[in-house]
Amino acid sequence: MEIIIKPTEADVASLAADIFVQYLNRESVTLGLATGSTPLALYRELIRRHREEGLSFAHARAFLLDEYVGLAPQHPQSYYRTIRDEFTAHIDIDDAEVKSPDGLAAHPGEAAIAYDQAIAAAGGIDIQLLGIGTDGHIGFNEPGSSLVSRTRLKTLHPQTIRDNARFFESAADVPIHVLTQGLGTITEAGRLVLLATGEGKAAAIAAMVEGPVTAFCPASVLQLHPHATVVIDEAAASKLQFAEYYHYAYDHKPAWQRP
Predict the structure, then answer these.
(1) Which of 10, 81, 109, 157 has its CA 20 to 30 Å from the CA of residue 252?
(2) 92 tagged catalytic
(3) Which candidate in 116, 142, 163, 233 is catalytic?
(4) Which residue pairs from 94-99 have beta carbons closer than 8 angstroms and sit at least 24 positions apart in sequence?
């Protein structure tokens, strides 16, 4: 993994936007989008570049990482609705090209298989955006998830439910089941870009970057990916033993290799 440590959340968002622009300059691109609080600064920066600098998404398609089971697409907390409210409604991407798992499917297992097939039919994801949970999950691949898992139905860890309760009236309102891309599905993307900010993510980042590859820290699977970039702020990097080296390595990277 390439580890890039920036001073602030705004710096993380700006550098991540630079990475995404490289892919958006292609004739066509398939994006993997994530929801949650961490990507918001990046989405705001991409929206700004679209409005002020002419950055276009008209040639892009997108797939979401996951969706709650039991929430209608227009429910305020569904990820179908959230990604539109926070990002895609503010850019020039065709709404029909923004796909998400079917959280209302009568047979979630079949819907999961169909979602994997849709990603494959699109030629795979070129660049996948990721966040990380406090327990090391990516997507909704909770600790113990198979490192080769496919899109499937998962039960949320109680900690994840507590973390997500801030978006609902109470923890009791958070759905306990989701459809999520699996770790095997995620790592088939051409490039992975994981963002993390704040001291609350520091332990998870340390486990992912400097711990062993293990199902108990699902994000550690990024260690096996040929092109994974981790962009974090100083607070999220605060538990890394080799933070000084990561700074040094990035500062001395040839200009043509930087994002």
Answers:
(1) 10
(2) no
(3) 142
(4) 94/58, 94/61, 97/60, 97/61, 97/62, 98/33, 98/61, 98/62, 98/64, 99/61, 99/62, 99/63, 99/64
Please compute, for residue 135, the number of CA atoms within 13 A of its CA located in the half-sphere on the CB side.
19
Q: Is 2 a catalytic residue?
A: no
pLDDT at residue 213, as a whole number: 98
Domains of the chain, with CATH numbers? 2-252 (3.40.50.1360)
Q: What is the pTM of this model?
A: 0.95
Examine the residue annotation and report whether 135 is marked as an active-site residue of this protein. Answer: yes
Of 135, 157, 163, 233, which is the active-site residue? 135
CB atoms within 10 A of CB 229: 20
- Which of 67, 137, 157, 163 does the annotation list as catalytic? 137
Residues 6+ apart with CB under 8 A from 226: none
| pLDDT tens-digit series, residues 23-54 | 999 999 999 999 989 999 999 999 999 999 99
